[in-house]
């Protein structure tokens, strides 16, 4: 790259001077950076190609970049450009200096008016996405940032879905999201409406902002899932009747009767003091720019065996995973035993429907627990117990998970 007295020697592609680390996950790090030409601050997500997970998931990265390139809303983080070297992908985004909303609410619950303000901004952004066939699917305070003016910015579209992922039954089917914010219909494994699960997550967020704690929470994950499935939550006594009524419509376990975005906009609690943000659609990147970004993203990842961007959000991805099945726990336990014996692993009985599989040297192993969620559904949870990460990934992805999912 050409170097001049105005461009720092370490400037990325001669354009961005990389600064402090803002955060990191299993396969990516996010840095503060400065555009050396304009002086404007940006955030750069650096994805290490060598540490990317399992094959056949390259579309996730392309989809996230494609989605972000089409979004231009005052309450959504903007994508500037995508760059790459042989070993890294750099996603250059708007820098939002106020940090996570989660950090602010962790210091104490918000008043009804402040909670309403942030909720109004969230719904404005989510409604904008839904109108364009985009569903976030991982809305939570950790993915909501605040700018220098105290306004909300929705970030992290790594788990987002678009309308072309909807199956013939009109539903999405991928199990994803953060446990405390996941909608009950996702747990049922029957397919779900992306817009309705986003509304549920928005309801959980509003409860957290105003009450200061989660509506559905328990140290035991299965107990928490059962509370979500049944819609069991209690509002604090001091909360206003109108807020309680509104929350009950957001956290309706029946997606068919749950309040919609259009109904939210008309609700008296929501509309109090609401001003829809003014911005011009012509500000949205023109079609040529969007196509250029999408093509660039495809070129960057097409050589790769694939990437699953959801793993960027979870630092424990290489040592554990969890999913829902419609199967008898006893049958799953027998299948785990069968696979373990086939691989000549020691099989130890755990508590209830749990087993530990271990290699002779003890340096590789996996613990599998099966929990009953409902009469028909179970949750399977797996954790690496040995030190050999490579063995665990290969064993789980190629042997154990296929055997369980195909039952």
Automatic annotation (TrEMBL):
For this protein, the Enzyme Commission number is 2.7.11.1
Name the UniProt key words of this record, in alphabetical order: ATP-binding, Kinase, Manganese, Nucleotide-binding, Serine/threonine-protein kinase, Transferase
Q: What class of enzyme is it?
A: transferase
* Pfam families, sorted: NAF, Pkinase
Q: Which reaction does it catalyse?
A: L-seryl-[protein] + ATP = O-phospho-L-seryl-[protein] + ADP + H(+); L-threonyl-[protein] + ATP = O-phospho-L-threonyl-[protein] + ADP + H(+)
Identify a single GO molecular function assigned to this protein. protein serine/threonine kinase activity
Per UniProt, where does ATP bind? Answer: 45
What region holds the Protein kinase domain? 16-270
**Similarity annotation:** Belongs to the protein kinase superfamily. CAMK Ser/Thr protein kinase family. SNF1 subfamily.
Indicate what this protein is called per its UniProt record: non-specific serine/threonine protein kinase
Taxonomic classification: Eukaryota, Viridiplantae, Streptophyta, Embryophyta, Tracheophyta
């Amino acid at each position: 790259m050409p170097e001049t007295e105005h461009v720092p020697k370490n400037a990325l592609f001669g354009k961005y001077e990389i600064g402090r680390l803002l955060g990191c996950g299993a396969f990516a790090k996010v840095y503060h950076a400065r555009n050396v030409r304009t002086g404007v601050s940006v955030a750069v997500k650096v994805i290490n190609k060598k540490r990317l997970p399992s094959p056949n998931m390259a579309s996730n990265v392309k989809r996230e970049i494609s989605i972000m390139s089409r979004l231009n809303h005052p309450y959504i983080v903007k994508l500037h450009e995508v760059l790459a070297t042989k070993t890294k992908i750099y996603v250059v985004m708007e820098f939002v200096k106020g940090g996570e909303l989660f950090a602010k609410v962790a210091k104490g619950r918000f008043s009804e008016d402040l909670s309403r303000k942030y909720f109004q901004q969230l719904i404005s952004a989510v409604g904008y996405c839904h109108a364009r066939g985009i569903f976030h699917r991982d809305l939570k305070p950790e993915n909501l940032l605040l700018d220098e003016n105290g306004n909300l910015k929705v970030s992290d579209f790594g788990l987002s879905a678009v309308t072309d992922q909807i199956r013939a039954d009109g539903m999405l089917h991928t199990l994803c999201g953060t446990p405390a914010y996941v909608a009950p219909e996702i747990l049922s494994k029957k397919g779900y409406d992306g817009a309705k699960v986003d509304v549920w997550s928005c309801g959980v967020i509003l409860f957290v902002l105003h009450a200061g704690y989660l509506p559905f929470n328990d140290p035991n994950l299965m107990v928490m899932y059962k509370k979500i499935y049944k819609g069991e939550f209690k509002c604090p006594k001091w909360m206003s009747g109108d807020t309680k009524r509104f929350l009950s419509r957001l956290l309706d376990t029946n997606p068919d009767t749950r309040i919609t975005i259009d109904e939210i906009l008309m609700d008296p609690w929501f509309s109090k003091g609401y001003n829809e943000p003014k911005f011009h659609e012509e500000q949205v990147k023109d079609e040529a720019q969007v196509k250029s970004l999408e093509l660039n993203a495809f070129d960057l990842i097409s050589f790769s065996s694939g990437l699953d961007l959801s793993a960027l959000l979870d630092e424990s991805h290489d040592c554990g995973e969890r999913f829902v099945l419609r199967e008898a726990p006893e049958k799953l336990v027998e299948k785990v035993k069968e696979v373990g014996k086939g691989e000549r692993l020691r099989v130890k009985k755990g508590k209830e429907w749990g087993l530990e599989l271990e290699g002779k040297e003890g340096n590789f192993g996996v613990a599998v627990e099966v929990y009953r969620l409902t009469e028909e559904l179970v949750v399977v949870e797996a954790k690496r117990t040995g030190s050999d990460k490579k063995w665990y990934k290969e064993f789980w992805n190629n042997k154990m998970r296929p055997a369980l999912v195909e039952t």
